[in-house]
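Renewal narrative, Specific Aim 1. Our central claim is that a sequence can be written position by position from structural information alone. The example that follows is taken directly from our test logs and has not been curated for this report. It begins with the structure tokens describing the chain, in the order in which they were read.
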């Protein structure tokens, strides 16, 4: 009885050992080690920004006793950059983006007399250029990785700022000027961001992306007339991505 049990034990041991170690390397696949960077992408596109001056227009109106009306308008800018992606699982990615952005918006300022009639007007196109870095966790709604949502934060450094202003008085053109406005903006800007987007493939390596993103200023953006404020914004962007 004891000898019969030992025969069965050795037979099972041999069969198990052969099953595990007797396979060819092609059949025995070990899990690949996790890489820090799974994908590298290059991207570029256009963004329509809708700025929120965080009460600046209201402050100007009150400070001028209701004789200055300022409005901010959306304008189309552009951006380009490189992203480094770490895949945490099939639906969650952590992305670091290095970005160049040219952000545009315009302002219109009406100056009123005591009777509320417009005496002069200023139309100004503002162009700010930034270099930035963003940390963005992304969640995809399916394994196809199309519809996605994200949150994150960004740091931007202002490299240049200019404004082209057109003046008019009593309804007549009064000239224009290109002004260096970099001293009126903070050099270092930190934002929290959140939004959603949709990826649509063009080929194995190229895809398009449409995205809605909100930026909330965690630091001051504007510093003019001894007043500092944050400029929040919502942007609608369309970009092309190349992924390797």
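The sequence written for that structure reads:
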């Amino acid at each position: 009885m004891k000898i019969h049990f030992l025969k069965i034990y050795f037979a099972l041991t041999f069969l198990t050992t052969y099953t595990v170690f007797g396979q060819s390397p092609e059949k025995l696949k070990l899990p690949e080690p996790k890489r820090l960077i799974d994908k590298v992408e290059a991207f570029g596109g256009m963004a329509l920004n809708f700025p929120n001056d965080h009460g600046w227009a209201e402050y100007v109106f009150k400070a001028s006793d209701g004789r200055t009306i300022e409005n901010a308008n959306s304008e189309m800018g552009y951006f380009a950059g490189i992203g480094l992606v770490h895949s945490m699982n099939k639906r969650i990615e952590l992305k670091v983006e290095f970005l160049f952005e040219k952000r545009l918006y315009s302002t219109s300022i009406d100056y009123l007399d005591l009777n509320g009639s417009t005496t002069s007007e200023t139309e100004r196109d503002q162009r700010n250029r930034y270099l930035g870095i963003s940390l963005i966790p992304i969640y995809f709604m399916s394994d196809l990785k199309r519809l996605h949502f994200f949150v994150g934060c960004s740091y931007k450094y202002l490299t240049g700022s200019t404004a082209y202003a057109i003046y008019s008085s009593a309804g007549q053109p009064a000239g224009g000027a290109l002004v260096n406005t970099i001293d009126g903006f903070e050099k270092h800007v930190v934002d929290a961001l959140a939004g959603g987007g949709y990826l649509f493939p063009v080929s194995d390596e190229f895809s398009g992306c449409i995205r809605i993103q909100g930026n909330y200023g965690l630091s001051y953006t504007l510093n003019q007339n001894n007043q500092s404020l944050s400029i929040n914004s919502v942007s609608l962007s369309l970009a092309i991505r190349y992924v390797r």
